[in-house]
Amino acid sequence: MSNSRVSIHGYWSSRLMFILAAAGSAVGLGNVWKFPYMAGDSGGGAFVLVYLVCIALLGLPVMVSEVLLGRRGRSSPVNTMRALAEEENRSTSWSLVGFMGMLAGFMILSYYSVIAGWTLAYVLEAAQGSFTGLTGEKSGEVFSRLVSNPWRLLFWHTVFIVLTMAVVARGVRKGLENAVRFLMPALFVLILVMVVYALVHGDFLAGLKFLFNPDFSRITPEVALKALGHAFFTLSLGMGAIMMYGSYLPRNASIGSTSVQVALADTGIAILAGLAIFPIVFANNLESGQGPGLIFNTLPLAFGNMPGGMFFGLLFFTLLFFAAWTSAISLIEPAVAWLVERFSISRVSSALACGLVTWTVGLGTVFSFNHWTRIGWLDGTPFEGKSFFDLLDHLAVNIMLPLGGILICLFAGWVMSENSSRDELGMKHPFVYGLWRMLARYVAPAGMILVFLHVLGVF
């Protein structure tokens, strides 16, 4: 049965635009900020190797499944899951999967916006020459001065939300597409410039060895689970964003090949980020396993003491901001689209409403780094000692995303009929379709269940 549904929100003008948009959703702080420090914490090449395997066996089949559902439903994740469940004569309660993904994306953006605001603050710091001659102690002071001041965090949080909603309010073609048409090529050029800078002024050979010479003794179950979880998170899966973008995909575009290209772009930029960062780290005798502070504490120290460091520090944090912006746009798009469908309001009104609520919830994260560093009423629970930011991040990333991913695979692989999935995917070779179906039905759900059980402390 051929799909005859249409999207009221519009369509991407081409397959390339979908690839740029989906890659922009996937390429964010997870690639440029989180991937390098996770690799640094988890043995470099050992982590990278397991991560690449997880992208292929888990991330890609889930992405294909999510795009498949999105294009077949042609609406917000909530209404897509309801329509497809009705098409298969199943319970409309499956719409809760779409609602959970939409809610997870909304929750993530509320704190993501605050962290992204740090990148804007550091662009200004770099432009003012604050990194020049920086010492380790001074570098820590720059970061502490930022996060300890709620008014500065609030200002940059507000700026980032306004920039994000300004794009989303303009719609698919005028807003989302125009933004990624500029931002993604610019991001790619910036990161290549940073890699060349690392090649000239960093210890590039040490960076290559660290990322591509795995110490197999470091591949522990803990490292494998981290890589599995990050592979899922970095592709923006389970939060409705890829499903929403899939609903704008033209009918004549191949879901399989476009998903592969998005995964390759996402993984390639993560690797390039490592090649841009670790040579600089090693050239300055800095610690690779710095955790989240690697970007905001360690790199300013390196840029402040390297030739051309002021300019390239400015370039690097501009790159980080662009990566954050492309992801933020996709995080809120499902909620904006759902409000338009549910209440028949304009896109501008929907974007304003979503932006205001996201900004308000983000205040909890703003204060998590200064006044509300822990939530007292969580004492005596497994979340004892966590801040509002920690709690939100844990619930959204560690519980809602993997659970949503499991349910998406179960629906695409088990609930949706073979005829429906074959029709929508349009895979000409039976082996390719059979491979996706096997991975979506068995391998990807099993991997995500392992991550989910580990997060819950089962093992």
Short recap of the structure:
The protein is mainly alpha-helical and 459 residues long.
Characterize the structure shown:
- By secondary structure, the chain is mainly alpha-helical.
- It has a single domain (15-455), classed as Up-down Bundle (Amino acid/polyamine transporter I).
- It has 18 helices and no strands.
- Helix 3 packs parallel to helix 10 and helix 13 runs antiparallel to helix 14.
- The model has no long low-confidence stretch (mean pLDDT 88).
Write the layout of secondary structure elements.
Blueprint: H1 15-26, H2 29-41, H3 45-73, H4 77-87, H5 95-127, H6 136-147, H7 150-168, H8 171-201, H9 204-212, H10 221-234, H11 241-246, H12 255-283, H13 293-303, H14 309-343, H15 347-368, H16 388-415, H17 418-425, H18 430-455
Helix pairs in contact: 1-8, 1-12, 1-14, 2-10, 2-12, 2-14, 3-4, 3-9, 3-10, 3-12, 3-16, 3-18, 4-5, 5-7, 5-14, 5-15, 5-16, 6-13, 7-14, 7-15, 8-12, 8-14, 9-12, 10-18, 13-14, 14-15, 16-18
Could you name the key traits of this structure?
single chain
**Global structural class:** mainly alpha
Mean pLDDT: 88
**Rg from C-alpha positions?**
21 Å
CATH architecture tag? Up-down Bundle
What's the CATH class, please?
Answer: Mainly Alpha
CATH fold assignment? Amino acid/polyamine transporter I
Strand residue content: under 5%
Compute the separation of the termini in Å. Answer: 44 Å
Number of helices: 18
Contiguous low-pLDDT stretches (5 residues minimum) are: none
Element order: H for helix, E for strand: HHHHHHHHHHHHHHHHHH
Sheet with most strands: none
